[in-house]
Write a structure and sequence with these properties.
Number of helices: 10
Largest sheet: 9 strands, parallel
Strand content: 15-25%
Shape: elongated
Order of helices and strands: EHEEHEEEHEHEHHEHEHEHH
Radius of gyration: 19 Å
Helix content: 25-40%
Strand order of the largest sheet: 1-2-4-6-7-8-9-10-11
Structural class: alpha/beta
Length: 264
């Protein structure tokens, strides 16, 4: 088994605990783990004995809800985690991820979905500590009809701390969002990918917008610029498509590594 999604909206019951215990007894090692909450905004609690097994071999962790961990919980080994996805309902990170430099030294890919007004102060502080080790950053903005100015502005301190990012993906930005996000980055990026819905026709990049973006300091060493269509992912972004946009972006990332042209 490579991946497991725990839906706490269906209640973290003894039956679920028993099922996880069976997987543990069988020696199953997970590579991808998702904590999902579909029916409420409550904090979920994971038993220490199961948590250590759940995260021991995980390379990709997706957090869509607040997760409560016992204060005395510790991991005996460093995490193999390289990718972290954070949904809009996460107010803070679980303690086993902190400090990143010692708990998750391989973590270099961050996927954010800061809907609903942006990041909480606690979450932002933690991510600013992580930021220098991130090389691959994805930002999923809310649909244009939900409003976005506070969301983008709330990312400024985080983006300015991202001193190692070379790959940037932005989901559904307006030209103003794109320019603002790129202006916050302190160093040059090699790949920028813009994912859009076909329905967002009012915010297309004009030649003027594109010229302004390409003139930004962080774009001086740009090697690839990608704008694939994204209409087929609408269901995933709106909460009705399983694992969401992160898995789709991961597959796009794999394809991007095989592309050699800047514009196509």
């Amino acid at each position: 088994m490579k991946s497991l999604a725990l839906d706490f909206g269906r209640q973290y019951s003894s039956a679920l605990a028993d099922q996880l215990a069976i997987l543990k007894a069988k020696g199953v090692v997970l590579q991808e783990l998702s904590f999902v909450l579909t029916s409420s905004r409550e904090t979920v609690r994971v038993l220490n004995a199961l948590l250590a097994w759940l995260v021991q071999g995980v390379r990709r962790l997706e957090l869509d809800t607040s997760t409560q961990i016992d204060e005395n919980f510790t991991l005996s080994t460093k995490l193999l985690l390289d990718t972290l996805r954070i949904g809009s309902l996460v107010p803070e990170l679980p303690s086993f991820l902190l400090p990143f430099s010692s708990a998750a030294p391989r973590l270099t890919c961050l996927e954010l979905q800061p809907w609903g007004g942006g990041l909480t102060p606690t979450l932002k502080a933690s991510l600013c500590e992580l930021a220098p080790q991130i090389t691959d950053l994805t930002i999923g903005l809310p649909p244009f009809f939900e409003g976005r100015d506070p969301t983008v502005s709330s990312l400024e301190s985080l983006l300015r701390a991202c001193t190692s990012v070379t790959v940037l993906r932005i989901v559904n930005p307006r030209p103003s969002d794109l320019k603002q996000i790129l202006s916050f980055l302190p160093n040059c990026v090699a790949l920028v990918a813009i994912f859009r819905f076909e329905m967002v026709i009012f915010y297309d990049l004009t030649p003027t917008h594109l010229a302004e973006v390409l003139d930004l300091p962080c774009m001086a060493q740009l090697r690839r610029w990608r704008m694939p269509q994204m209409a087929r992912w609408w269901g995933a972004m709106s909460g009705g498509g399983g694992r969401g946009v992160a898995s789709s972006l991961s597959s796009e990332r794999d394809r991007a590594s095989r592309r050699r042209t800047l514009l196509h």
